[in-house]
Design a protein that fits this description.
The mean pLDDT is 88. α4 crosses α5. Helices cover 26% and strands 22% of the residues. The protein is an alpha+beta fold. InterPro entries: PP2C, PPM-type-like_dom_sf, PPM-type_phosphatase-like_dom.
């Protein structure tokens, strides 16, 4: 307890720092996807000689914009009547602060001992944290890979905020491997810029504080699926 309090006193931002986590592991032709937060893994598949592709999400988005996630969180905290706020744009937030229901860190929404100065006022809660609201335990989903599976896009929430699964898969499919992630990043930023009556080049010159209000961080990893042993399919 003393160690946590000391760290909060020297660097109060630690209590409000948090991150989602998305991980993929292939073992014996099974892809295991672990997710805590609103990052997402999306699979593309098509047969040899086929033009049409299929798109399959391989993870669950833990974001309170979905009614199911809100219901899950409320069921875990049946006596907490202050779990959600809605802003003027109709966007839900957990205690008015974050949209995710799973996250690493964000301890100010997990332990009431951090709900005090020197934590910034915008994070301090009027109502005590009686039990952790967020948790960092990932959901792990298995997927048996087949010869028709082509690639999996692992993307943070900033990618999927303004990019659909279908759009992302189409961009990667049409791009060379060496440039697919960059092409997808540019498309996501193009979409974001248009929503704010800007163009992609404008985003490069915005002050960081203002840019953070326009789009979340975007991380992309593309796993191409090659050379699966046919006898295991």
């Amino acid at each position: 307890m003393a160690m946590r309090t000391t760290k909060l006193g020297t660097n109060p931002k630690l209590a409000s720092a948090g991150s989602c986590c998305l991980l993929g592991l292939v073992h014996n032709n099974v892809l295991y996807v672990a997710n805590a937060g609103d990052s997402r893994a999306v699979l593309a598949k098509w047969g040899v000689g086929e033009q049409h592709h299929e798109v399959h999400p391989l993870s669950i988005d833990y974001n309170v914009k979905y009614l199911e996630r809100r219901n899950e969180l409320q069921a875990e905290h049946p006596n907490d009547l202050n779990l959600f706020d809605v802003n003027n744009d109709g966007i839900y937030g957990v205690r008015g602060c974050v949209q995710v229901t799973k996250a690493i860190g964000d301890v100010y929404l997990k332990l009431d001992e951090f709900n005090r100065e020197p934590l910034e006022a915008r994070y301090r809660q009027q109502h005590p944290i009686l039990q952790p609201i967020l948790n960092a335990e990932p959901t792990v989903l298995p997927y048996v890979l087949s010869l028709d599976d082509r690639f999996v896009i692992f993307g943070s929430g900033g990618l999927w905020r303004h990019t659909t699964n279908e759009e992302a898969v189409s961009i990667v499919k049409a791009s060379p491997r060496s440039g697919a992630a960059r092409a997808l990043l540019k498309k996501a930023l193009d979409n974001t810029a248009r929503r704010h009556n800007l163009v992609y080049e404008d985003l490069k010159h915005l002050p960081l504080a203002y840019k953070n209000n326009i789009h979340d961080d975007i991380s992309i990893v593309i796993l191409y699926i090659d050379d699966l042993p046919a006898e295991n399919q």
